[in-house]
Design brief:
The protein contains 9 helices and 10 strands. It is of the alpha/beta class. The protein has one domain: Alpha/Beta hydrolase fold, catalytic domain (Rossmann fold, 3-Layer(aba) Sandwich), CATH 3.40.50.1820. The strands form 2 sheets. An 8-stranded mixed sheet has the order 1-2-4-3-5-6-9-10, sandwiched between helices. Strand 9, helix 7 and strand 10 form a beta-alpha-beta unit. Helix 4 crosses helix 5, helix 4 packs across helix 6 and helix 5 crosses helix 6. The longest helix is centred in the middle third of the chain and has 22 residues. The N and C termini lie far apart (about 40 Å).
């Protein structure tokens, strides 16, 4: 069981979509937060601005398959790098980037990530205000948890619609076994995911501790502010997140604006355990990826539903 937990939110990934235009990384004021804008495709009507939040120890650039889908539908996206991921780490001249990034990861806390997400949200909200358009949340796994936690914690935060990909709004009993190591935040749990996919070779217990604290805070402060139009997508056999528990939460909390859709992905031959991953065609299979894209666009931009398959074409 512990072995399975070691790959929590570390899953295989395909290359970023070709042709996606990346802006220069931007550092928000105050504490260091690295964000990167991806503007909507030219000549597309602007339909919203999205805050995009990645999973634990995932390279933030790996959210670009989903971002490409958003951009082609007319949605600007702000891709956030949480501390310890991508380019968001405290640089040092006496160590190489891999070491210094991992050092920064060892110091992360739930309040730090919360602050980073909030300041990134304010950036998205300001662009949406200027463009007179909607604000969306796209959160994968840890990112879905942090976005929802921000929504119910801060009265100034509002999302017009949310898409949650296998959100970490609960975890399986097996995953909670990691809590035994929480007093040792510097310990690094080896990652079994491909080197090209992960931000770091392993995940420090500080990262898991921050995740569990965010989850505990979310559960204690759950309130009706969470009931905004939301699409939840996940595999019924997800090894880390309980499909049934999230469905039960939706019912017991009377989240009548939430819709849960089961993803029927094809298991990856090299990673048969990776049911948690629902993020690209390579890991899901062409049909499941296309169907997920249609569901996402149908939720965010209903009028574009009929054209949703276009971004997936080769």
């Amino acid at each position: 069981m512990v072995g399975a937990a070691l790959i929590f939110f570390h899953l295989p990934w395909e290359e970023a979509p070709s042709g996606l235009q990346r802006s220069r990384p931007e550092v928000l004021t105050g504490e260091q937060v690295i964000v990167r804008w991806h503007d909507k495709a030219p000549f597309r009507k602007r339909r919203g601005v999205a805050l995009v939040l990645h999973g634990l120890n995932l390279q933030p650039e790996k959210m670009e398959s989903v971002i490409s889908l958003l951009n082609r539908a007319g949605i600007d996206a702000l891709n956030v790098s949480l501390r310890g991921h991508g380019e968001n780490y405290l640089h040092r001249t006496d160590k190489d980037p891999e070491e210094t990034r991992l050092d920064s990861f060892r110091t992360v806390t739930y309040p730090l990530w919360y602050s980073e997400v909030r300041r990134s949200y304010l950036k998205v909200r300001e662009r949406a205000r200027q463009k007179k358009t909607c604000v969306f949340l796209i959160g994968y796994s840890l990112g879905g948890l942090l976005g929802c936690d921000l929504l119910i914690s801060d009265p100034v935060v509002r999302f017009d619609r949310m898409v949650l990909l296998a959100p970490a709004l609960n975890v399986t009993v097996e995953s909670y076994l990691l809590k035994a190591l929480m007093p040792f935040p510097g310990i690094v749990i080896d990652s079994l995911s491909p080197a090209s996919y992960r931000s770091n070779d392993g995940t420090p217990m500080a990262g898991y501790k921050a995740l569990f604290e965010a989850l505990d805070h979310f559960k204690r402060h759950l309130n009706p502010a969470l009931n905004v139009p939301t699409l939840v997508l996940m595999d019924r056999e997800d090894e880390f997140i309980s499909h049934d528990a999230i469905r039960e939460m939706i019912g017991s909390r009377r989240l009548n604006l939430w819709k849960m859709t089961t993803v029927r992905k094809m298991p990856h031959p090299d990673y048969p355990y990776a049911r948690h991953l629902i993020i690209d065609e390579a890991s899901m299979g062409k049909t499941a990826w296309r169907e997920m894209g249609e569901a996402i666009l149908g939720h965010l931009v209903p009028s574009a539903q009929g054209r949703a398959s276009a971004p997936f074409s080769k």
